[in-house]
## 1
Amino acid sequence: AQWGAGSDEEAVRVLRQALAAADLPRIWRARLLALLGQVERQAAGFDTAESISRQALTAAEETGDPFATAQALNDLWLIHSVRRDHGSALENIDQALGLLGDDHDHADLRSIALDCRTFTLQNLDEWPRAELALRQAREFAQRTGHTDRATWVTAAVLRYWLGQWDDAL
C-alpha cells in the first residue's frame, strides 16, 4: 500500500524490517524479497533491484515456491528488457512460464508473463512466435474465466508492427 501511494522509502523500510524478523517463514522471505526487488527498482535503481531479485530467485528456488520464483524471474525480465538484453529477458520469462504452467492459482502472474513474452518476442523480431504468445494469452484468459482485455494493447502494438493498421485500431 505504501509503495502504491508513492512512499517508496517507507515501503523499503517496512519490507526490510519484515525481512529481518527471525521467525519469518522461508516462503515469505522469498516473496518479500521479490517485492523488495520491485520497490527498490523504483527507489534505488536497476543494479540494486537486480541484486535483490537474484537473492529472491535463490530463496524462492530453495523453498520451491513457484509464485515467488516466477515473480523474481518477472522482475529480472523487466530489468533485462529495459537494458535491451532481450535474449536474457526471454530466458527469464520462459522459465517463469514453465514454472507456472497452466496453474489457475497464479492466473494473474501467468497472464502478465505471457504479455511480457509477447513484448519480448516483438523486440526480437520473432513475429510468428509473438503472435502465438498473444494467442496463448487470450486462450489462457478464456480458460480461466478472465477477460482478454489485458491483451488488447499488446495486440494493437503487435498488429501495428506487422503493418496490420486496421486491426491495430
## 2
Amino acid sequence: ANQLSEPGLREALRSELSSEAVLAYVSKDIPEVTEQQALAFYQRHPDKFLQVERRAAHHILLTINEQFKENTPKQARARIQSLANKVTSDNFEKLAERHSECPTAVNGGYLGLVSRQQLLPELDEVLFNMPSKSFSQPIYTGMGYHLLWCKQHYPEHRVSFDDAKAQIKQSLYEHAQKQQQRVWLSRACKGENLN
C-alpha cells in the first residue's frame, strides 16, 4: 500500500523496531503499580466500573424474500411459528444452526451479552421485557421474522475491585510508561541532554 520495495520495507521495519526498543528502554524503570494505587484509582472513578444491564441472548431469523417459495411473508411466518412451537433450551441452538438465515447461526444463534439499544428496536423491546430462560413469540422486523431466547439476565452492577484490579494495574502501568516516553521524546526534540 505504501509502495515500498523489499529493501525499503526492511529498513522501515528496522527503524520501527529500533524506535520501539528505545522507547521500551526509556520506560524500563517504571515501578509496578501497587494494590493501594489501584484501589485509590478504583475509589476515585466509581463510574468507570459500572456494568449496564445485559442479556445473554440467542435468536433465529427467517428472512422475507419473494423469490423463494419458503420465504414469502406467509411461508416465513408459518415456518417461524412452527419453530416457536418446538423450541426448548435443549434444542434452540441446533434449530438456529439448521434454520436461521443469520450469520449467528454458526454459533447457535448467539447474539452475545446484549445491552439496551444494541439490537433492532423491535427486538430490544421484547428482549428486555422477557424473563430469564424464556422464548419470544415470532417478532417481525424489516429483516424478517425472529425468535429470541433470553438465556440469562445480568443486572446493572459495579465490577468489584478484585475483578478489576489486574486491569487497573496494567492500565496505570502503561499510562506511566507512555508519560515517561513523552517526556523523553519532548526532551530529545528540544535537544536536551538525555542522560
## 3
Amino acid sequence: SDDDHEGERKRLLQTLTDLAEQYKIRVAILSGDVHVAAWGIAYRRDIAPTENWSRIVQFTSSAVVHPSLSGLLDKLFLGYLNSAAGQVQTIDAQHQVEMMRFPGHNQFMMAARNWLAIEVDPATSGKLWFTWRCEREQSFSNHLHAIM
C-alpha cells in the first residue's frame, strides 16, 4: 500500500480481475513477508460476493528460516498492523481489500516462522488446500484453509 507503488497495485488488481472475469476463473496471489503469515481478499465493490471470480485471495507466508517478531517494539508494531488490518482498505473506486483473521486465531497477522503448503484435493475436482505450518516451541502448528 506504499504510495510509490499505488499505481502498480491498482493496475495489477485490474489486470487480474479482467483475467478472472474473462475466463471465469479464481485467482490467488502468493506473496512473502519475512515476519508474518496472513491472508486477505481483494474484490470489486460493484460485483456480488457470490461471483467467485471477482474475489482475489492473497496468501502471505514467510521464510521459515527467518526469526519472527519477538521484541517489545516488534510486538507494538504487530499490534498496530493487526489493528490496521481490521479495517477494509479502499484501493480505488472499484476495488477494496479486506484482511481475514488467521485460521484458528483472533488476529490478522500470525507472527511466527512459517511456511505454506498448497495441495490439490483430487476427491473434490481440484479444490486447493492452503496449509500454513507455524513454528511453536515444541513443534509446528497446522492452520488449514480450503479454497477454490
## 4
Amino acid sequence: YGAWDCFGESLMAALPHQHGLRLLHVGNGTSVLPEGLHAAGYSNQWATDISPSVIATMRERTANITGLHWAAEDALSMPHHADGSFDAVVDKGTFDALACSGQGHRLIAEAARVIAPGGVYIMISSLESARRAFSARDVWLNVETTHVVEPGGEGFVHIATRTGATS
C-alpha cells in the first residue's frame, strides 16, 4: 500500500486541521501512519488492530510518543468507543482485507457510528471500486477519490464525509 512518503500528503490534505482532532486508525497493523501524522501535529490518536501481539509491538515502538494510544479490538465492533467519538477514521487496507470475506460493509457501518457528524473516513485502498462502499447516501456525502502513484506505492484514497444523519 505504500509508505508515508506515498500517501502522507493525500492523507494530510483530507484531514481537518483543527486543534485536538480525534483520530482513529482501524486495522493499523505495523503501519507508520500514526507516527507520521503525530509528527505532523495530530497528537490525539487511537490506533487499533485485532492482533494483541501487533498492538504490544506498536506500544513498545511508540512508547515515547505522547497522545498516541493503542488498543486491540475488532474494527467491526468497537463498543469501547461512543457514537460520534472521532473526527476522522483512517483505514489503510483494512476495508480491502474485510471486503474479501464480504465484511467490508460492516466496517463502513461501524465507522459511520463512531465518526462525528461532519467527520471524515479516509480509506487507502488498492481498489478504485471501494468507493462504492459509501453508497448509503443517508450517512455519507462528498465521496472523493484520488489515484496516488508514487515511487513508494500506488493506490486510491477515498474520502467520505459523515452527514448529520444517524446510521
